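sry for the spam today, last one i promise. struct tokens for design, 290 residues
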């Protein structure tokens, strides 16, 4: 029996109940965050909290995020995963419970706050060495992808398209530009330079994305933040995704065609190694980053 957090209480998951009038259920009126932990040490939680603050502010939901780090720590302990090699805490905050009406409730209501913790597993080293396949799909998301809302139906459909094609990832394409994945950020390597879409309203400013870009620059790998055209994909030397539970995720095939020589490339390997080193540094330091 797992323990979840709901509106100030830690309770068995089986006892957690949310009203059918919750605006998250009725309108997808809310935001979420997923923070990874390595042996109980959060990975750049300060950046997750900053992004969450921006999302809450944009949606005009009043909630004090300062209590989140302790809540996350307690959830890990109660579920006995605080020593796990890799775990996550999922947090969702909606506008709260009110009779169904499109405008915000006239009289403010408390937000609904829900969170759970669980272990997640990396792919095996053998799977990672083989690399993964991706498919291109139309980007059907709204115009404020940079706000991490719970309105994820287009992402669900994109990821299902990948599953149906026997692929691990979907590359969302809009106006001829390969923007990002269904649940992760997207990178290419062209002439030895790491390329990814700049932070705008059409991509999510991923936490792992920002760390990987910093690691690339620190390790002398050239970086360029610009749109990647779909027509460029066949000419990419390497492609990869980054995300909370993807870390650095190599792509060796897109729409059935090999990427480069069809193997995990040296830049992807170098960034994956740098990322693993950064995780070890955080664990050894016990850095909470909060």
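last one done:
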């Amino acid at each position: 029996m797992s323990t979840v957090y709901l509106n100030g209480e830690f309770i068995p998951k089986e006892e957690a109940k949310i009203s059918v009038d919750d605006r998250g259920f009725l309108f997808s009126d809310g935001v979420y965050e997923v923070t990874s932990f390595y042996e109980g040490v959060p990975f750049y939680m300060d950046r997750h909290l900053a992004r969450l603050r921006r999302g809450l502010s944009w949606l005009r939901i009043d909630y004090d995020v300062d209590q989140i780090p302790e809540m996350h720590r307690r959830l890990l302990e109660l579920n006995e995963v605080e020593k796990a090699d890799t775990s996550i805490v999922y947090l969702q905050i909606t506008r709260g419970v009110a009779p169904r009406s499109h405008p915000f409730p006239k009289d403010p209501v408390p937000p609904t706050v829900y969170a759970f913790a669980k272990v997640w597993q990396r792919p095996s080293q053998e799977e990672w060495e083989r690399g993964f396949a991706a498919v291109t799909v139309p980007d059907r998301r709204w115009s404020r992808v940079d706000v991490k809302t719970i309105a994820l139906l287009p992402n669900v459909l994109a990821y299902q398209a990948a599953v149906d094609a026997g692929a691990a990832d979907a590359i969302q394409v809009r106006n001829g530009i390969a923007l990002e994945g269904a649940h992760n950020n997207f990178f290419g390597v062209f002439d030895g330079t790491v390329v990814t879409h700049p932070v705008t309203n059409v991509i999510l400013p991923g936490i792992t994305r920002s760390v990987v870009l910093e690691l690339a620059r620190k390790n002398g790998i050239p970086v360029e933040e610009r749109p990647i055209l779909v027509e460029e994909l066949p000419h990419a030397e390497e492609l990869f995704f980054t995300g909370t539970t993807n870390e650095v995720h190599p792509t060796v095939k897109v729409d059935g065609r090999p990427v480069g020589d069809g193997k995990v490339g040296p830049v992807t390997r170098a960034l994956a190694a740098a990322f693993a080193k950064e995780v070890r540094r955080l664990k050894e330091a016990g850095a909470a980053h909060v």
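Residues 125-282 form a domain with the D-amino Acid Aminotransferase; Chain A, domain 2 fold (CATH 3.20.10.10). ok im logging off now
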